[in-house]
Write a structure and sequence with these properties.
The complex is a heterodimer of chains A (301) and B (259). Chain A is an all-alpha fold and 301 residues long. Chain A has 13 helices and 1 strand. Chain B is globular, with a radius of gyration of 20 Å. Classes of the chains: A mainly alpha (301), B alpha/beta (259).
């Protein structure tokens, strides 16, 4: 594949130049640009640049949301109404397929899972477009490009929070209580957010090479949702399929999530560990893939 | 370590080669279709070949050359946007870029949002930006347009805002790529004055332009790029003379009127 061989021609010995990169601090504002193979820049320096410009990611997320009118009353309302309607559609569908008699508490389970899954879904979809859409800025300004997919994750997170209000209403309507175990919920949300950040960075970089990714992505994400315990509960899965579904990183996270928020049960330690491992792995893999590629973006956009 | 005598931009034996695909947009579909046929639809472009020069502090360097001579690529490398394939670029100070006109601006967002986003991406913090915002708008004379989406802007307004943002980023080094051809005569005069003022403050400017008048008028030194090679580096008027002779064109009135 031509796209994976984008390594610039053999770089001459980097040895003598490399240490200077580390001296490139903000005070002297001295920048040295030397050839590189597709590889990683000094990570400490890179991360400090990301941190210094974090307000750019927040601002980008805010303006994107504003451009979609999510700052208006009806825009906000839509953010709540849209997932609720979607949940309703799925509930009716499931109810129809699997015979009547699903309790309202199942609707709460479905909504909770759906909303958490949408955190990943939005991050992946927005993230995949973030780099290509940021083309103008990429061609004009030198800044750590990871800020673009990270802004998408911020947007996704901001859209997730209000949906929890909808879930709460349904939860109480179904007769659910307030549980001390809810303290686990933020941990799981962080886990999914980190996982989503990794996926967003991976998709964002991949989209530069394959522009049709964003047209496949909705289908992939839909399938991913069907093999996650959202439209059914983890307990309902027949034992012989469980090992297969366990491969899905979202399974463990969503299983813990449903236990915690719907039933007030402390999450299964094993599943939590698997989820954490997946989240960290995705984050690391996505970030390294993105960062090792990002200096190539300017010529490909 | 920063010594007074060290140049603010040092370009040493820089070559820039990049690969580009023939197809307009790379997609997974075309990649898969191509896989069976073992076609290689990638072309290497040697945009810049073994170029070396240096720019001292407080100097305006003009860059001339035909379309596709590697001028923009070279400037992008100085800005740190494209990595060099070979060689080394050293830059002392904060760089502000005004590259190919208008890009960097998202047309759906308002002028205000674009200024803030561009500034934050360039590394300014919010307080600094708040401070400079009024100045930027005043200089661009776009007061009543700042809350409109930029797709409503004329190309002149676009260019004015871009220029105003670039010079207000408090740059030690200002890189300008063919962006001065927009704007009316009045704004152009104003921007020339502003660039001279920046120079007097010991800032460095690199100006890519096709307008001989601007180069002669503003630049101390110039480089002439020809098909990726550095054809000449020297005093601005001499370089422009040589380039003009090479092109075989007379410097007609329109060039002089450029100012």
């Amino acid at each position: 594949m031509s796209t994976t061989t984008s390594t610039p021609t053999d770089a001459p010995e980097q040895g003598p130049h490399l240490p200077e990169l580390y001296r490139d601090d903000e005070y002297s504002e001295r920048h040295v640009y030397v050839p590189h193979k597709v590889g990683l820049p000094p990570m400490g320096h890179y991360l400090s640049l990301v941190w210094k410009r974090r307000s750019f990611a927040f601002e980008l997320s805010r303006t994107t949301m504003r451009a979609k009118h999510f700052n208006t009353v009806f825009g906000q309302l839509w953010l709540l109404l849209n997932p609720l309607l979607l949940g309703l559609v799925y509930f009716l569908l499931i109810d129809l397929i699997r015979g009547h008699g699903r309790p309202v508490s199942f609707f709460a389970h479905l909504l909770g899972g759906l909303f958490l899954y949408q955190l990943l879904q939005t991050a992946a979809q927005e993230g995949s477009n973030s780099v290509v859409r940021g083309g103008g800025l990429i061609l004009n300004t030198a800044f750590p490009r990871t800020l673009l997919p990270l802004a998408s994750v911020t947007t996704s997170f901001k859209r997730f929070l209000p949906t929890m209000i909808v879930w709460l209403i349904v939860h109480f309507a179904a007769g659910g209580g307030v549980y001390i175990e809810w303290l686990w919920a933020p941990v799981i949300v962080v886990m999914v957010t980190l996982f989503s950040a990794g996926i967003a960075m991976f998709c964002g970089a991949l989209q530069v090479y394959f522009r049709d990714l964003s047209s496949f992505l909705p289908y992939l994400l839909r399938i991913w949702m069907y093999i996650s315990p959202i439209l059914y509960t983890w307990e309902e899965v027949p034992a012989k399929y469980k090992p297969w579904l366990e491969i899905n990183p979202m399974s463990s996270m969503l299983a813990c999530w449903s236990d915690v928020i719907n039933h007030g049960k402390a999450p299964d330690t094993n599943l939590m560990l698997i989820g954490t491992a997946w989240a960290l792995f995705a984050l690391l893999f996505g970030a390294l893939f993105f960062i090792s590629r990002e200096r190539d973006f300017a010529v490909r956009i | 370590m920063q010594s007074a005598s060290s140049p603010s931009i040092k370009v040493e034996n820089v070559s820039i080669t990049y690969r580009t695909a023939y197809e307009k947009l790379p997609t997974l579909r075309t990649t898969l279709l191509r896989l069976g046929r073992r076609e290689k639809l990638v072309r290497e472009i040697e945009a810049v070949r073994d170029v070396s020069f240096a720019v001292d502090k407080g100097t305006v360097l003009g860059v001339v050359g035909a379309n596709g001579a590697g001028k923009s690529t070279l400037v992008r490398t100085i800005a740190g946007i494209l990595p060099p394939t070979e060689g080394r670029v050293e830059v002392q100070g904060r760089v502000s870029t005004l590259l190919a006109l208008g890009v960097g601006f998202n047309r759906e967002l308002s002028g205000r949002e674009n200024v803030i986003l561009g500034g934050l991406a360039a590394g300014l913090d919010r307080d600094e930006l708040e401070e400079k915002y009024e100045e930027i708008v005043d200089f661009a004379e776009l007061d009543e347009f700042m809350d409109l989406p930029m797709r409503a802007y004329s190309s002149g307004m676009y260019g004015r805002l871009a220029f105003s943002v670039a010079i207000h980023m408090d740059p030690d080094i200002l890189l300008i790529d063919e962006a001065l051809s927009v704007g009316d005569a009045k704004f152009r005069r104003k921007s020339f004055e502003r660039m001279r003022q920046l120079c007097a403050e010991d800032r460095t400017i690199v100006l890519v332009s096709h307008a001989f008048g601007s180069i002669r008028d503003l630049c101390h030194q110039a480089v002439w790029m020809n098909k990726g090679n550095l054809e000449m580096w020297g005093e601005a008027n001499e370089v422009v003379d040589a380039y003009r002779d090479f092109l075989g064109v007379k410097e007609d009135r329109t060039d002089k009127e450029d100012l």
